Amino acid sequence: MLIVITAAVSVIAADQASKAFILSRSWAVGSNREFLSIHRQLTRRIVPISTFPAGALLGLWIASVVIVAGLLQAGMIPETALSAAGSGAALGGAAGNLADRLRHGAIVDFIAIGRWPPFNLADAAIVGGVGLLVLSFVKT
Predict the structure, then answer these.
(1) Is 123 annotated as catalytic?
(2) Cβ 88 vs Cβ 3: under 8 Å
């Protein structure tokens, strides 16, 4: 459980620090025509879940934490460093985006790769964390 907490706190810290840095600057790196660019964007309504009120999102995040803890406790998620890191990264990423919704009313996105919609470190942690979690099932 310590790895889960450490991973989650690390993701939240890195995510919020990167967003604070991006919000404090008024510049952009790259252009929309380049493969990789850094542009600040406040995302309000791209994903259907982002239209939920902040209180409902907080409730969903708390439910996610309880479910992950319960699944770990019940032995349904392998007790490996890989699964713990994956769970922590996904929960930390969700917490980072939830913090944005509560503070800014939108999610701060700033990384653009090719034609993909802009994203942030929290989004990458969620996807990477779920990937690690799936990989932990394959490895066991």
Answers:
(1) yes
(2) yes
What tokens does 140 get?
């066991």
SS3 of 41, please? strand
Sign of the torsion formed by the C-alpha atoms of 63, 127, 95 and 3:
positive
| Rounded CA separation 106/39 (Å) | 15
pLDDT digits 0-9 by tens, 86-136: 999 999 999 999 899 889 888 999 998 888 888 999 999 999 999 998 898
15 flagged as catalytic: no
The predicted-structure confidence for 45-78, as pLDDT tens digits, reads as follows 655 555 566 667 677 778 888 887 888 778 888 8
Catalytic-labelled residue, pool 109, 119, 121, 125: 109
